[in-house]
Amino acid sequence: MIRLFLLVCCLLAAPVSGADGGASWLERLRTAVGSFGEYEVRFELTTADDYAAAGSCRVAGDRYLISMPQGRVYCDGRARYEVNDASREVVIDAVDTSSRNLLDNPVRAFDFVGEQYDVRTVAEQADRITLRLTPRDEGALTTIELTLDKRSSLPVSVVYGAEDLQIRVKIVSFARSATAFPSFRRADFAGYEFIDFR
Asked: Which of 13, 69, 127, 164 has its CA 20 to 30 A from that of 7?
């Protein structure tokens, strides 16, 4: 009887991440990111075919700006404006509000709370925890592997996809934005071709 009591106590004292597969860390992540208000993320991206680039994204409510070497993506919450300086084109498209990919929709890139994913802890160290998120929708192919800093609950890295289709994003910094948000202005791109897919 005493042995059974001790076993129950040990189970109740186990870390929350083990008890819920890591889902509680997703709530901590959402809370941590939400506390920043407007913020900027600097990152380094690599793919399975050896592409590598550094970039950044700024988020302010439903608006965002993604900056990469080949161009920028502005979003006002309703439309995306993808600027390609090499081809001098601006492609306008609708926003994919369901995407959780940092390069598609930074607004929701760190909001995984809900019923869309099965979550489990795949690695844990003293200062970090890695979660694997598998979509419950059979049509969705992208798994996400998310590593968080345990102290801040902020992301350290994100891996989208699996095996030879992986996109790895290392988070270099995550900080509040202190300057005015740079909105898209058509006048700044005189001479560019505008292609509207909305």
From this structure: 127
Taking a C-beta distance cutoff of 8 angstroms, is the pair 47, 167 a contact?
A: yes
Q: Which pair of structure tokens corresponds to residue 81? A: 């404006």
What is the residue whose two structure tokens read 């965002």?
64
Which residues lie below 8 Å from residue 187, measured CB to CB, with a gap of 6+? none
Q: Is the dihedral of CA 138, 140, 145, 146 positive or negative?
A: negative
Furthest CA-CA distance within the chain: 81
Distances from the Cα of 144 to the Cα of 27, 50, 73, 153, 170, angstroms: 16, 19, 22, 17, 13
Give me the residue label for tokens 């869309």: 116
The owner of tokens 């910094």 is: 173
**In the chain, alpha helices (H):** 2-12, 16-19, 23-34
What is the model's pTM?
0.82
The tens digit of pLDDT for each residue in 96-129 reads 888 888 888 899 999 887 778 899 999 999 999 9
Q: In 10 A of CB 139, how many CB atoms?
A: 5
Q: Is 181 helix (H, G, I), strand (E, B) or coil?
A: coil
pLDDT for 133-181, tens place per residue?
A: 998 876 666 789 999 999 999 999 999 986 678 899 999 999 999 899 9
> Distance between CA 129 and CA 144 in Å, rounded?
14
Question: With contact defined as beta carbons under 8 Å apart, do 84 and 70 qualify?
Answer: yes
